[in-house]
Write a structure and sequence with these properties.
CATH class of the largest domain in chain B: Alpha Beta
CATH superfamily of the largest domain in chain A: P-loop containing nucleotide triphosphate hydrolases
CATH class of the largest domain in chain A: Alpha Beta
Number of domains of chain B: 2
Strand order of the largest sheet of chain B: 2-1-3-4
Shape of chain A: globular
Structural class of chain B: alpha+beta
Oligomer: heterodimer
Radius of gyration of chain A: 24 Å
CATH topology of the largest domain in chain B: Ribulose 1,5 Bisphosphate Carboxylase/Oxygenase
Strand order of the largest sheet of chain A: 2-3-4-1-5
CATH superfamily of the largest domain in chain B: Ribulose bisphosphate carboxylase, small subunit
Distance between the termini of chain B: 18 Å
Strand content of chain B: 25-35%
Largest sheet of chain A: 5 strands, parallel
Order of helices and strands of chain B: HEEHEEEE
Number of strands of chain B: 6
Chain lengths: 297, 144
Amino acid sequence: MSAAMETAESRVDLGKLYAESNIGETIDQLESDLVGLLPVKTRIREIAALLLVESARRGLGIQAEAPSLHMSFTGNPGTGKTTVARRMADVLHRLKYIRRNHVVTVSRDDLVGQYIGHTAPKTKDILKKAMGGVLFIDEAYYLYRPENERDYGQEAIEILLQVMEDNRDDLVVILAGYKDRMDTFFRSNPGMASRIAHHIDFPDYSADELFRIAEMMATTMHYRFDEAGQAVMREYIALRMQQPRFSNARSIRNGIDRARLRQANRLFAGRGELLDRAALETITAEDIRVSRVFTQQ
Amino acid sequence: MKITQGQFSFLPDLTDEEVKLQIEYGLNNGWSIAVEHTDDPHPRNTYWSMWGTPMFDLKDPAGVMMELNACRKEFPNDYVKVLAFDSNKGFETIRMSFMVQRPADEPGFELVRSEGPGRTVRYTLRSYATGRPPSGRYSPAAAP
């Protein structure tokens, strides 16, 4: 009898832990809100599994140091690094790895001071504000400027490293930036590279994924493409991808914003007749067709 | 002589865990937290030295604990207290204040009498610790 009870107590139900943490809901939402990004989603699921198992181990009294979850997000512009960082805070909060569901987003200017003795208090101030949550450093490679050896960025990096090590339980640091420049950054700061356990690469979107993103963006803004509009939008995406300064979802967002502008102009030019809801919501082929993208060939 | 001041002065000294909970309460109310220290234990000494500036916009007590521990490390023999300032209109004042560190050895106070005209006697308190120069008020090496 007592032996049976003992085994019952020394077993954990991962399924129950999973349900209790509500993490499934967050991951499902991630799955439906974010198009593509397969490696990213896989890694998030792996981290979620790791933390669940970790809490199960803790439940049985197995002692281990908390896993280090500092991350680096690399990828081209507009691949969703910032969006995922915000989601990451939600995931880690539900898994009780961080105590507060908040993200502090900073860039070089927020961390590095302008004169001697300005950097340390500034960096510490930001770190204190981020404690308990996620610190997201956008374009982190700007912190290190090799061409100027007296640059204060190095000081900020050193403080960052120290806090990342000492306050591992209190703070998750996510560095983000373009792939090649982040690689240079990590090469010149081996201390930083070795303290970051998760390097996640954000792939570029395919034309299909970009179209789905365009549709989702339009839907959240309460617009929709009519049938001809959809076909032209696909064409637009294919052409835009070939052109310079293409930045994935961000370019698509800009394209939609301009289409909205043209739609408004078209409706305004034809004023006099009454418009129904559908007319106000529909982006037609001609709204997209006049884009510079089609003429620049 | 154990000197008490501010909140929880009737309780045994707070542990770090309890200090954290108190700070969290302050932060949840939207108050900004400051750390101050002094080596002059006189009850009328209201001018304690600030350890850095008050901390605004914090979400979690870990940030305060980081500063608090830095202050303790720098001044291991000082009195240290934590304050919470409420900037809301109508309050605009300190809402919490409690001690989080005291010197190992507190020598206490001397009652000083000074005679005035006639046979009047005025009384005042003087801390034994402040008889020594600021650098060595509580360190054992400086004890006579």
